[in-house]
Structure formats: structure tokens, C-alpha cells
Fold Protein-S-isoprenylcysteine O-methyltransferase.
Amino acid sequence: LRLYCILTLGKLWSYHLSVRKEHRLVTSGPYSVVRHPSYTGLLLQSAGAVIMYGSQGSWMRQSGILQVPFIKVLAVTGFFVSTTLCAWISINRPAVEDQMLQRALGKEWENWAKKVRYRLIPGVY
């Protein structure tokens, strides 16, 4: 999903929050369903990593490396920190992006926000 979003945005995509001179509103593809699908993808990616590495049969579980107390604490802490960071980013940055785009694009953004009401999860948020 994140790759699809990056490809859909093309040159407008950036890690940094910014509105460029040539900025235009992208309303096609995943942006026709939710306003910030890349962050939805980030949440799914984070959850997927925890499931992939923490599930029965995963390398981490099968190798026995988690039997080493330090490694187990390190793995659990790493998963907790990365998942919390991804969740925080995915919940907070869309509001800031919405404000920036509304200021820059005005009525065009407002019309799109009325049409695409949800930021991350269709019908929920």
C-alpha cells in the first residue's frame, strides 16, 4: 500500500511535510478511499512485522534466540518502540498534513475532504 501511494504521488511524495509551488491535490487511486493511505500502509507494515517475527514458526521463535534474556528484552522493546512510533506518526501527521493542504489548496482540498471523509481507515477514522 505504501509503495502504491508513493507511486501515485510521484514527485509530490516526500518524507518531509511540505507543500511545493507546483503542488496539486492527488485524489485518485488509494487517495480516493482515504486521505492518508500511506500512513494506513505504515500501520499495516508495522503490525505485519510484529506478526511475522513473533509468530509460531518464525525464525526468531524457531532459532531459540529469544531464549537469551537480553535478546528477548531487546526484541520486545524494539517491537514496542517501533510499533508505538509508527502508530504515533500515523495518527498525528495526517492532521498536520490536512492543515497544510487546506491552507495551500483551499476550496479544492475542502471539497475533497467532504468527499473522502476518513483519514486512515474507511468508515472509522
